[in-house]
Amino acid sequence: MIDLNLTGNDEQVLAAVRQEALIARRYARHYDENEHEFPPNELPEARDHPGFMANMGNRSAEDAGMAVLSMFIAMGQTWGDYSVRLRRQERGLGNAALQAAGTEAQKRQWGGRILAMAITEPGCGSDPSLLRTSATLDGDQWVLNGEKIFVTTGCRADGVVVWATVDKAAGRAGIKSFLVMKGTPGFIVAHKEKKLGIRADDTAAYVFQDCRIPRDQLLGGDEQVHTEGSGGFRGVMKTFNMTRPGVAALGLGMAEAALDFTRDALHEVGIEITYGAGLQAQAAVVERFVRLEAVFEAARLATIRAAWLADQGESNNMEASIAKAKAGGAVREITQGCIEILGPMAISREHLLEKWFRDVRITDIYEGTGEIQRLIIARTLLGYSRHELK
Amino acid sequence: MISFAMTDEQASARDAIRGFAATALRPNARAYDEASAIPDAFYPQAWELGLTATQLPEAYGGYGAPRSPVTNAIVLEELAYGDAALALAAAAPSLFAYAVADQGTEAQRRTYLPALCGAHYHAATLAVAEPTPAFNAFAPRTRAVADGDGWRLSGRKCCVPLGDRASHVLVIAAVDDGLGAFIVAHGATGLRIADAEKNLGLRALPTATLDFARVRVDVGDRLGGAAGCDVPRLLNHSRVALAAVLNGMSRAVLDYCVPYARERVAFGEAIARKQSIAFRLAEMQMEVESMRWMIWKAASQLERGRDATRSTHLARIYAGEKAMWIADNGVQVLGGHGFIREHPVELWYRNARTLSVLEGVAAV
59-118 in A: which are within 8 Å (CB) of B? Predict the structure, then answer.
């Protein structure tokens, strides 16, 4: 039965998430201005705080599915701050890849570690078939060589799932992923990137120089070079069907914070947001704000839709891209618009709005740019293969 | 609980209406638009779908299905996928019927609902919009002034669907302490029905401008009785409905453009294989879906009796803006052919602009 409203139980969980998020927000400015510091895994306040997990026990089959709820939780957390959390979840993108494509033995061995995911290279972004990092089999070892950039949580992680090609001539079909732990000789964390936003987040650059790992650290354990479309590459791509809505949710949490801040600031000077009158009959500033709220709702529901399909075990490839593309555009429009609505006060670093404006900008770039998402949507819509629509 | 799953009843209603839209609406849309008229035979044919009667209580002759704004939003999307003007014509009696069923007194329900559940087509409607600049549905200029044990209604309404033939029209008006809805019969003294409106879009749909000159309304014909009714709630139902119509029309544009772009060749390949067109179509798809979820959210709030003022407003303005954008891009994808009346996109372009400024022309 169609219902897009949260239950009381879910509202309780999310209220607790927001409480924690407000604590994290106290530290947001500090770690933004001090980019070289890492926020701690636990804030000092965490010790005396029950945490939102305490509210999860009452949930039942009547409440939202886990994928849907996790979208709301992600939004609630970044509503506080993108990079700072009361307690940091000990997970990276590589963990999702491990869960999606790893063997049972690999999941047992590496599941407890924080795993980053290294895909992008200086000369290879959205088109992984261009990637140059290579893996060569030498006896019982893989030898990795190459450079990786934009590795999220790359400094903090215990290890990484790294994409490398075992056969350049095979193009995408030659791409495999490998588990490499920190401390492996030849695996160098080159530096932490300096960024426009999400500055407290650690984004690393890696170098692999004759880095040797055991043969069984190939993710999924299957060494055959697959023919196109039959496994390896596509298996790893599936990882993104949940992470794309997740990335959308992370951005939307900040956009919501910007909307809330703007609404409160307008309220303080006596401008109230109302929804009754048609747009024609509203003050320009109210109309502008309400339009931004509508954009937010549209992107949030697109994100929830993609997650809901995942909860149902249904394919969500196009919907995950819709969520990501929709949110990527929405968070830019919303934060840019909120600054325009509030005027000069909005650009002050006394407030967090200018930070949200910078922080959300990554949403339309990482995990596949908005353009790549449109490509995926268009191929599905038009029934084109990737050769037919590039 | 968050769910996008239709019930079996909703899925079968969708399929039935989709079939009707494909056979009775889309093939006739162009001809009726050119004629600026719908043949009389259309109304009884649409009446047989039971659009209005299905959700009216059995006690008054209805089929007794639970009132479901979500189901109605699904149905309106499908109807409007066929044609928006014919969708509004077919669903117009629900404007009056749902308001009376949801917020009328027992006496009002007994008086008005049986005819709307009957075997024979019966037109009744709602009058919300007014021909004033910066019109605000929540602050109409049409006023009802207390007069003895009843009311006197004065003002002007426009874009009233089936306003020329409706046996009764429910009129939204300002009263001293807010808003009221008043039932006025077709031949009431002081009610003047102007010549049929000639509008930019929805040309087939008969819409009327109604002038009220101190029209007498008995105390028993204020919807909800002496205490009145929740007019914002009524308007919220109409806003979701209008958004659903915009949604169906938007999907029609997209579904027309996709095969066109795959077949139309320029510079040696289908234009759909060029990113400028492919990305445009992708964005149309994104917006068709996103607006639907906003409509479903607002409708599900109405269904649960929650205050849906915010969500209905957001759904309505978003659907209005994006439907216009989609229709605009539909014309662009077809290029010169988008400007020619041989293709439906020029009709959708006019209808999008028309629909997205209207109020109170459909109900869920």
Answer: 62-65, 68
Q: Which of A280, A299, A304 sits opposite B134 (nearest CB)?
A: A280
Residue A13, token pair as written in the block: 């969980």
Facing residue for B4 by CB, picked from A7, A298, A305: A305
CA distance A344 to A334: 17
CB-based contact (8 Å) between A284 and chain B? Answer: no
User: What are B187-241's pLDDT values in tens digits?
Assistant: 999 999 998 999 999 999 999 999 999 999 999 999 999 889 999 999 999 999 9
Name the A residues in 325-354 with CB < 8 Å from any B CB.
325-326
Output the pTM of the full model. 0.90
Tell which residue, A388, A255, A373, A269, has the closest CA to residue A324. A373
CA of residue B150 relative to chain centroid, distance: 30
Tokens 């949940």, residue located? A242
Residue-wise pLDDT tens digits, B302-350: 999 999 999 999 999 999 999 999 999 999 999 999 999 999 999 999 9
Residue B111 has pLDDT above 60, yes or no: yes
CB A18 within 8 Å of CB A73:
no
Nearest to A163 by CA among A195, A230, A115: A115
Euclidean distance between CA atoms B280 and B326, whole angstroms: 9
Q: Cα(A42)–Cα(A39) distance, rounded to whole angstroms?
A: 8
Average pLDDT, chain A: 90
Nearest-angstrom CA–CA distance, A18 and A257: 11
Residue B282 identity (one-letter amino acid): A
Give the DSSP H or E segment for A206: strand A203-214
